[in-house]
What we know:
It contains two helices and twelve strands, in the order H-H-E-E-E-E-E-E-E-E-E-E-E-E. The strands form two sheets. Strands 2, 4, 5, 7, 8, 10, 11 and 12 form an eight-stranded mixed beta sheet that branches. Strands 1-3-9-6 form a four-stranded antiparallel beta sheet, with no helix packed on it. The protein starts with a helix and ends in an 11-residue tail after the last strand. The chain has helices at residues 2-19, 21-24, and strands spanning 54-58, 62-63, 68-75, 83-89, 95-96, 98-100, 115-118, 128-131, 139-145, 154-162, 168-173, 177-179. It has one domain (26-179): Reeler domain (Immunoglobulin-like). A hairpin with a 5-residue loop joins strand 10 (154-162) and strand 11. Helix content is 12%, strand content 32%. It is globular, with a radius of gyration of 21 Å.
Amino acid sequence: MMVVNAKLALLLVSVAAFGYPKTALAYSEGAPIEVCNDLMPQHGAPAQTTDSPYTLTPNRKSVKGGESITLTLASKDFSKFKGFIVQARDGNDKPIGSFTPLPASKNNNEFKGKWKLLSCPDGPSNNTATHANAVEKSRVVLTWNAPKTLDLQSFKFKYTVAKNGGQYWVGKESENIAVSQTNPGSTKRN
Length: 190
């Protein structure tokens, strides 16, 4: 009887330690390159199907080639989150543009160390922003830079936010960002 109990205890410990590794292993230092295409965390739990409590808000609704957009990722209901991944995507669902970190200053110290850059395939360097740690965040501010040549009419930002390893919302989209091909008020020279 004692041998059976010892075997059962060993089995339970093994299942607890090794049977659910994906659930326990969230990516605390940022999303891995493997999630670049579908933005699906490899947390081992299914994605949430409810409306996301998080929004990604751009500071402008249109952009020209070479300009920047400031994005704010935040909660609608003040709930915190631990992880995220954000990309700008063209009509073919490929990453475009690049992110840059905010310069160090006393005004943005709140955001320092909350995110880092990732260079996903099929796009330019630093085309993706992701969390840098598993510290709870109430909001993150990102700076995205349009490529100098932006031959599109519009694009969207796609993002995934993880409240924790078991609760996350995948592939959410921002509103359309219009692309302005010329400077307002510019004149042509012949």
